[in-house]
Design brief:
This protein is α+β, with helices and mostly antiparallel strands and 643 residues long. It folds into six domains: 41 residues; 223 residues, D-amino Acid Aminotransferase, Chain A, domain 1; 104 residues, Nucleic acid-binding proteins (OB fold (Dihydrolipoamide Acetyltransferase, E2P), Beta Barrel), CATH 2.40.50.140; 73 residues, DNA polymerase, domain 1, CATH 1.10.150.20; 76 residues, Orthogonal Bundle (DNA polymerase, domain 1); 74 residues, BRCT domain (Rossmann fold, 3-Layer(aba) Sandwich). The protein contains 24 helices and 24 strands. The strands form six sheets. Strands 12, 13, 14, 15, 16, 17 and 18 form a seven-stranded antiparallel beta sheet that branches. Strands 2-11-10-3-9 form a five-stranded mixed beta sheet. α1 runs antiparallel to α2. The longest helix is centred in the first third of the chain and has 18 residues. It starts with a helix and ends with a helix.
Length: 643
């Protein structure tokens, strides 16, 4: 039991806190059910058991708040018959179990006044500014009394794919909508949340007008402007058909779900049943009984990435699952493969997690893991196994690896970097393989290969001419764009702009900067400074940059700058009214020479907050340190004075 508890807690920590997966849902559920069975058999539940703890630990800098009543997990079953037996002679509501982040909303006098995440079930994070920019949360409702309700924040698959498509680096793309939603909802800057298209679906009232039926609650919530989780009324007799109807629509859904929820329609009856230490007795979750298929592992494909991480992918004999043919599944890392004792030729069972993502359920043969590649599948140089917190991963450490070059070149030509249209990752791979491009500066010399490129599949004279025009346009750039385009670890576009501004938009000064100079820049810490100086101290990198500088023309950013607020440091919190968002206000302050940071310190000149009476952490800190709190109107007056 102790062993199972430790394994499950480590898997939960990886999933909820670190946004990574060290075991499949199938394996987690199997181990969890084993622990539950042991606890029932022994009559003992150990302290800290995953069966009596709920959710993830709150680790962010967001304000914390204790829930008025604990937010419990739901007991679960995968058997439709058990679901019908649980309902008995009662009427129930069957709804989607959405796979997002549970949020509690509070309204007073018609207005949304607070939003709190589920957190660990007892203490959540206050994310009110972020909830205000969800796509469909009503800020004002008809009901005039105090109202508290719960619902699920989620990001649709279509929005998830749109956001990922805008990220040029494949390694930086989000793994699934839930991870993207979790990060989006818990942002410290609500403008980031606003861009993520987060939706909210209500599922229950905590307090408000008294009602007898859950179905009555759902209908009433719709009259208040809320989108409500889709549900149907069910009885013991109609349960099987209702579950089948939901299952048939999963593949067409534009929202992530991981099962169904069944709740007693009669509110008083459900509440009269009480609760266990972890589960309420008025609701139960239904997890899909995964359709599994037996097949044979044919090979493991190792795919190298820009970071050097080499990802294993299982290739198996094609099988039909949930109406589609599948033949590949991620193996995540070496530790995952070792746990499965996975060898080529083994008989395995596979399934689709949540009926969507192919995963390996079990290895029936367990012949033992085959040797991990000793050389990179792309460049042929030696690989190395990294062991971080007990998770083994494979890396190629050759800085000249073709896979790393392709990713670097893709970053170099991306919109926020040098902005060269017509150079996709696939096209770049062809150019590098053909020997046209060996370093970044060679991209500006592609005109030498006109005939060869025009003859390539997918190219022609018009495509080539468009590419040349884009390359010529990219020759004129800014120091910040050029710095970002080099792909220095941890140096994003915003940090590149900060560094360029600090050194007067002088690229020669920028490349000669020392670590002690860089850490003086607000937002640049030791990690960035170390990566930055290591990059420019490398002779090969210096040569690459020199070659680039012969091909580009540097110009300063186009914005005109006044230094009227030079020497002042601002922190912005809460909602703004005159400016479109906090980013716009931040840009205005920075255009006048001010610094805008994320936390209040003794060096802060002003905290900007339209609600000076707020009990937020920033307000409290400002008052403790004697930092003046300005409203937006007062800041506008200050700007007018300094411009």
């Amino acid at each position: 039991m102790r062993e199972l508890s430790a394994i499950l807690k480590e898997a939960s920590k990886a999933y909820y806190q670190d946004a990574k997966e060290i075991m499949s849902n199938y394996e987690y559920d199997k181990l969890y059910d084993e622990l539950v069975a042991l606890e029932k058999e022994t009559g003992t539940v150990l302290a800290g058991s995953p069966t009596v703890t709920v959710g993830y630990e709150v680790l962010s800098e967001l304000p914390k708040e204790r829930h008025e009543s604990p937010m419990l997990s739901l007991d679960k079953t995968k058997d439709v018959g058990a679901l019908a037996d649980w309902l008995g002679d009662q009427t129930g509501l069957l709804s989607w179990k959405l796979d997002g982040l549970t949020i509690v909303l509070t309204y007073q006098n018609h207005e949304l006044v607070k939003a709190v995440t589920r957190g660990n079930g007892e203490v959540g994070e206050v994310i009110t500014p972020n909830a205000r920019v969800f796509q469909n949360v009503p800020l004002h409702i008809p009901y005039e009394g105090d109202l508290v309700l719960r619902g699920e924040a989620l990001i649709r698959y279509s929005d998830f794919e749109r956001i990922n498509a805008q990220i040029p680096d494949a390694d930086a793309k989000y793994k699934n909508p839930r991870n993207l939603c979790s990060g989006s909802v818990r942002q410290l800057d609500s403008s980031v949340t606003a861009k993520r298209s987060v939706n909210f679906f209500a599922f229950t009232l905590v307090s408000g007008p008294a009602m007898k039926l859950r179905s009555e609650e759902q209908a009433w919530l719709r009259t208040q402007g809320f989108d409500v989780v889709e549900n149907v009324s069910v009885t013991r007799e109609t349960m099987a058909d209702a579950v089948a109807s939901f299952a048939a629509r999963i593949s067409a859904n534009d929202f992530p779900s991981d099962g169904l929820v069944l709740t007693f329609d009669d509110i008083a009856y459900g509440l009269s049943l009480g609760r266990t230490a972890k589960f309420p007795r008025n609701s139960i979750a239904f997890k899909w009984a995964d359709e599994t298929a037996e097949t044979t592992l044919l090979s493991v494909e190792w795919s190298a990435s820009r970071t050097g991480l080499i990802n294993p992918v299982a290739i198996f004999a094609p099988v039909e699952l949930e109406g589609t043919t599948v033949s590949r599944a991620s193996l995540h890392n070496i530790s995952y493969m070792e746990d499965l004792a996975l060898g080529i030729g083994d008989e395995i069972t596979v399934y689709k997690a949540n009926m969507i993502i192919p995963q390996i359920a079990e290895n029936l043969t367990r012949s033992g893991i085959d040797p991990v590649p000793e050389v990179c599948p792309v460049c042929g140089k030696p690989t190395k196994i990294h062991d971080e917190n007990g998770v083994k991963t494979l890396y190629c450490e050759n800085p000249a690896c073709l896979a790393k070059k392709i990713k670097l070149f893709t970053l170099f030509v991306s919109r926020d970097a040098m902005n060269i249209d017509g150079l996709s990752e696939a096209t770049m791979e062809k150019f590098i393989a053909a020997g046209f491009v060996k370093e970044l500066a060679d991209l500006f010399l592609l005109g030498r290969y006109r005939e060869e490129i025009i003859a390539m599949e997918g190219f022609g004279e018009k495509s080539f001419d468009n590419l040349m025009a884009s390359i010529e346009k990219a020759r004129v750039t800014t120091p910040a764009r050029l710095l970002y385009s080099l792909g220095i670890p941890n140096v994003g576009l915003s940090n590149a702009k900060l560094i360029a501004r600090h050194f007067g938009e002088d690229f020669d000064r920028m490349r000669q900067a020392q670590a002690e100079d860089l850490v003086q820049i607000e937002g640049v810490g030791d990690v960035i400074a170390r990566a930055y100086t290591e990059y420019f101290s490398d002779e090969e990198n210096e040569r690459i940059v020199d070659d680039l500088l012969r091909e580009v023309q540097m110009e300063a950013p186009t914005e005109t700058r006044s230094e009227g607020l030079s020497g002042m440091t601002f922190v912005i919190t809460g909602a703004v009214h005159t400016f479109a968002n906090r980013n716009e206000l931040k840009a205005k302050l920075e255009s006048l020479g001010a610094k805008v940071t994320g936390s209040v310190t003794a060096k802060t000149t002003y905290l900007i907050n339209n609600d000076a009476t707020s009990s937020s952490t920033k307000n409290k800190t400002a008052k403790q340190l004697g930092v003046p709190i300005l409203t937006e109107d007062e800041v506008i007056a200050l700007i007018a004075e300094k411009e």
